[in-house]
């Protein structure tokens, strides 16, 4: 009698597979480490260099990443407070991999919403933004590592389309990677300060 009850409980509260959990943790960790390593040891001149007046500096990219991540995490938390809506899964248009590829694709440019543009983030320095980013990212990694929440059956209506909560986690890490690529483009500019 106990075995059927355990099976019923397992199906009533589906969680991430170990493969999904590992993939998300690895992606979150790799994109965090890449950003932190890339901006470590840059001078003030390097952090503030802009290739053009309308382009973001390395520091501004980090400020945007940190603020956007707070916003995205807030959207995920809000989506998880709503009742599960597995009937919406049939409306999902993209796989996990397609979301990651689309978000990281730098060939398509988008204007960031006002609240997450660098000048509106509230961060006074690179260190402020980096601390907020790493603290927030560690919280997300811990959540993905330990959660028993049903991330697949909470579908969130986000401005870019419908995503399940697991895809929202991947969106977070892919978004930071997108802008880490952007700041590497700044650093590759021939006029980027040598030190």
How would you concisely characterize the structure shown here?
The protein is mainly alpha-helical. The chain has seven helices and two strands. It is 59% helix and 4% strand.
Short key terms for the protein model shown above:
Four Helix Bundle (Hemerythrin (Met), subunit A), 7 helices, 2 strands, single chain, disordered N terminus, mainly alpha, two-stranded antiparallel sheet, 195 residues, 4% strand, elongated
Walk me through this protein's architecture.
With 195 residues, this protein is mostly helical. The chain has one domain (16-40, 50-187): Four Helix Bundle (Hemerythrin (Met), subunit A) (Up-down Bundle), CATH 1.20.120. Helix content is 59%, strand content 4%. The chain has seven helices and two strands; from the N terminus they run H-H-H-H-H-H-E-E-H. The chain has helices at 2-12, 18-39, 44-48, 58-81, 96-104, 126-146, 165-187; strands at 155-158, 161-164. It has a two-stranded antiparallel sheet. A hairpin with a 2-residue loop joins strand 1 (155-158) and strand 2. The longest helix has 24 residues, at 58-81. The chain is elongated, with a radius of gyration of 19 Å. 31% of the residues are buried. Mean pLDDT is 92; it is low at 1-13.
């Amino acid at each position: 009698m106990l075995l059927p009850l355990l099976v019923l409980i397992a199906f009533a509260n589906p969680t991430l597979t170990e493969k999904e959990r590992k993939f998300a943790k690895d992606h979150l960790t790799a994109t965090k480490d890449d950003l932190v390593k890339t901006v470590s040891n840059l001078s003030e001149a390097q952090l503030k260099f802009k290739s053009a007046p309308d382009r973001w500096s390395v520091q501004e990219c980090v400020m945007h990443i940190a603020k956007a991540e707070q916003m995205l995490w807030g959207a995920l938390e809000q989506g998880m407070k709503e009742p599960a809506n597995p009937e919406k899964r049939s409306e999902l248009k993209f796989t996990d991999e397609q979301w990651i590829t689309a978000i990281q694709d730098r060939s398509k440019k988008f204007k960031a919403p006002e609240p997450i543009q660098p000048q509106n983030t509230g961060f006074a320095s690179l260190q402020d933004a980096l601390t907020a980013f790493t603290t927030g990212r560690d919280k997300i990694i811990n959540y993905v590592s330990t959660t028993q929440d049903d991330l697949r059956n909470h579908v969130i209506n986000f401005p870019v389309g419908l995503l399940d909560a697991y895809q929202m986690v991947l969106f977070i890490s892919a978004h930071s990677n997108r802008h880490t690529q952007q700041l590497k483009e700044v650093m590759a500019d021939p006029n980027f300060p040598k030190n």
